[in-house]
Every structure is written in structure tokens, then in C-alpha cells.
Amino acid sequence: MLPYFHQTVFPAYLYTLLDRLPPEQAKTSCRFIFPENGRTRYDEGDLYTFSVILFGKNSLYIAEHLLQKLAVGIEATDNRVLHNNLQVVELIDGFSGEVIGEVNELTPWQYEDLQKQRQDLQGIEDFRLWIDSGVLFKKPLQSADELTTKRILKQLFLAALYANSDNALPLPEKTRTVTELTEQLDDERFDPADLLVDNHLFFINKTYANRDGKYKHLSGYHGRIDLHIPTDFPYRDDYLDLLLLGQYLGIGKRSNYGIGQYQLFADGKGQKYAPPPSQSLLDRLLDIRHFMHNAEYAKLADSQKQAVLAVRDAVLERRYRPSPLHFYQHTRTRLNGKKKTRTLAVAPVPERMVQKVVTKQLSQIIDGFQHRASYGYRPKRNRKQAVARIQHHIKFGNNWILESDIEDCFDHISFDVVQTRLRGLFGDDDLWRFVVDCLSAPLNHQLNRAKQANHSNQAGQLKKSRQYGIPQGSPLSPLIANLVLTDLDYDLSQQGFKHIRFADDFVVCGSSRAQVEKALVACQKSLSEHHLSLNEDKTHITQAAENFIFLGYQIGDKHVTDLSGQSPPKPQHPLEPNLIMQKGISPISHRGQTLFVCYQRRPYRVIIW
Predict the structure, then answer these.
(1) pLDDT for 41-50, tens place per residue?
(2) How far is CA 538 from CA 336, 412, 505, 542, in A?
(3) Whole-structure pTM value
(4) 9 and 82 in contact (C-beta within 8 Å)?
């Protein structure tokens, strides 16, 4: 099993193969592209595609050395993922796309090629950068407003300067020299009128443990950046050269591990030579075995199974078009005795079944980088654990409570935000197109009350195109909502707030009223970036001693009562939430692995989630 982001495993393996080369030759001359990100399971015989970008005078020597080592692998006695279980099947020149036999047949990409590619962009003023491997800035962004053209240009210039500097320098000295040169850039061309039109970046936390048990961070910002560079801009050619070159060098910290890679799009066309994955992630999720092992699918009649497989075939052949969603009214009685009616938009049974299979597989893939403060609609997480975590915070003096939820969360999530999230995680895989198509399916307005009033002609079958609003009733919607709200989780945790979120309901625990009031402002700012807002009627600041209701529990400073009649949650042990960060325990351990940890001389049995 591989982690979701292969940058946490594969570069270390490749650098281990090159361990006899000085670091200034290997780590400063290599960049990687991993189009297989997102795929975690490989069976014997499966293909794996990746790219190695080499620059500098030792490029061919390093490529030859790496190819020889890949043929041998590493004899491993431990349980490492990659050792001698890889075999080189084919060597392809990344710029020509031709199969080659030896590394000396590789096509170099020279300045003349850069000039020609820049000339092809004449007349185009709008550009988009898609970042799907994360960019790690030296100083984290607190908001989208902190990203400026100057900051992007400095990162691009730093990458170019680093790649062309003296490889004979020791690695720390080289890094320090290049950084000092970049900080001295006060020339007007690096402080222009801001050309950044828009950006949608989201933070993903990626950590891994090295052989010494020390944690390394490959976290970064994914998403898109939109630039407008007028044709009469005096430094247009310089900017385009940096943007085109930076696609291969990467920007930000730790680019030699494959993060910081982006693709420049102009007039809808990508400007980077990048390999496709060996198999589309969407095709992988629709493997027939996932249907055969699905209990709900097994209960369907034969005719319904045939209809489900027909939808699956249409998706695999890229000819699927979602049917209109049908409306149903669902009424439930709340704990206060009041009735609440929700309108569910539901796809036909065969299409819904396909969406359920995709949702189940997709949730297992992306769950690893969801924030630990999120408890709703996640495997092996529930409301009892969320309430137990609140008890833990209260026990340690965080008695002030901000409780709130998001106003009509599903109805206000933008499809553009959904597309950016999925595109930033999965690259140009057809998976994001399938998900967006399902969520933006036309609505078939046929309300129950119109039927009851015998006014079916007035209700009609109104179809309308939407720009926002993921349907309540789609299996994909809770997963996608969690993905969008991960921004809120990271924004709050980066500012030091202790919060617990269950879908669109959340609680922030603080040691003072001023602290939770500050958290309230942070929540409003974070949500406003996605055109979401808090429900004012359900937003309250209180003390735990005064009791508050969350997820059907009445929570106080010393007690918890389940108002639904189920058993109360057990208080969470202070060791549990931080176990995964303890030295020597790798966050990429296989799920289900059992660990025994001693805490205060008492053994605890823990299963990695």
C-alpha cells in the first residue's frame, strides 16, 4: 500500500538508489512528477508511471546510474513499501514521447525550446497555474490575500537561480547563497502592479517519518492561481520564461521531493510535458470487484444489476450524462419536538448505486489527509468520538464554548470550488469531471405538496442549470462537503484554536471568552472565502457549566447526557489524539496495524486509523 501522496515514499527510495552520489549532485539535480498520486493499491503486474527531470552537467550520468539501480532495487529486511519489487518496463523521452533504449537518446530542453514555446503564447493574456502536488512557502499563508505576484515571482526566480547555481557548493551553503540573492531582489520588475487576478488555494498536511523516526513535512497549498499579463507589459517575456521553466523546476521548499510542481495553462491548453497515469483513477474506482463486493449491490434484482452495470459502462466509455434529480420531502422530529423538513434531490437507483461505489472507494483514499478535528461522514469516526473530544478539551480548562453551524451549507457550495478541490488533488483525471457532473445534474422539480394539492401541472418538470448547490441526497455530497470544509479546519488549527467539527456543525473550545470570540471572527473569514456563512440563530458563546447541546448530546463541564437515549461517550484519553505524532510511529503505517504503547507504565492497545 502506498500513501495518497507518493512524494512521501518514492523520492526517498530513488535517492536511496543514488546514495553513492554526493547530495549536491543528486538532490539538487532531480525533480519528480508523480501522476499516480491518489492510487494507493498496486497488485503484482500493475504498471506505475513517474517522471524524473534532470538538469545540470551531470544529468546523463545520474540518469544512467538511476536506471542501473532500478534494475537491481534494494534488498530490504524490513517492511518497507518499495525495495526490489519494481521492474523497469519502458523508458520514454518526456519531451518527444518516443520510446527509447538508452538514456543518451533523451531530448534536451534548451533555451531555444523555451523561446519557441513563449512565442506560441503571443496574444494570450490570461494564464492559470494548476498546482496538484502542493507548494510549501517559507512563511505559511494566513489568507488568500497574502499571495501576491511578487511572492510568486520570487519563488520562480529562486527555483531558476537554484537550478543554475554551482553544484560544487555544499548543499546548505548553496541554499543559503541562493536565498540571500533572492531576498535582495528590489528591482522594479519583481515589484510590479499586481497581475494576480484570483486564486483558490487550500492547504493539505503531508508528513512522513524517516528511518530515524523523525518527522518530515511535505505539506503544501494545492489549487489554482489566475494571472493576467498584458501583451504590452514591459517584462512579459521575462515572466513567461520563469512561468514556463518553473513548471519543471518546481517552486517553494522541498521541490526536490516532487512538491511545488504545477502546470501552466494558456487558452485552455497545458504548456507542460507531463505523463498520464498508467490507469485513470476513475477507472480504478469503478473496478468490477468493487461492485461484486458491495452488499447493497448484491441485494438488487438482476434487472437492476444490469442497469447499474450499464451506467458503469457509460462512465468508463466517457459517454455518461446524469439524469435529472428527483425531489423528495423528508420530515423528521428534532429533539426539541419541532419538525424539520428537508428536500432531498435523488438520482435514479442505477446511477445512485454507481455513485455509492465511487464514494466508498474515494472516501478511503482521501480520508488520510482530512483534518483530525473532523468527525462526520468519515470511516471509523462518529458523534460519540466527537463529544468525547469536547470533554477532553473541557477537562483541561477550555470551558468557553463557541457552538455554531453553517447556513445551508450544501445549498451554497460552489461547483467551481468543488472542481478546484478535486482538480488540485487528482490532476486532470476524469474523476473530478464525473463528480462535478453528478453534483450539478439538472433538477426535476416535482414537489410532494404540489402533487397532494393536485397541481402537478403547476409543479411541472422544471430543469435549471446551477452554479452552486450540491444535492442533499447524493452519496457524494457529504464527502465533498467535508473536502471543502477542510479549509476551515486548517485555518482554525493553524491559529491555535481547539475545535471539533461534525459535517457542517462545529464547536470551538477556549480558555476565555475573548479567545472564542477571536475564533468566531476566524470562522467567518475562512467561510467567506467560499461564499459560506454562519447560521446566526445557532451561533452562541457560552460556558460549559451552563450546558449546551451538540449532536444530540447535552454537554456540561462534568456530565454528558445523550438526549436520544443511547449510551454516553467514554472520555477520551489524553494520549489518543496525539498518538500518531509520537516519535517512531509512521503516519503511513498500514491501517489496521496494532500497536502497543506504554503510557505512565500502563499498556494501551491502539489500532492505526
Answers:
(1) 888 889 999 9
(2) 14, 17, 10, 12
(3) 0.82
(4) yes
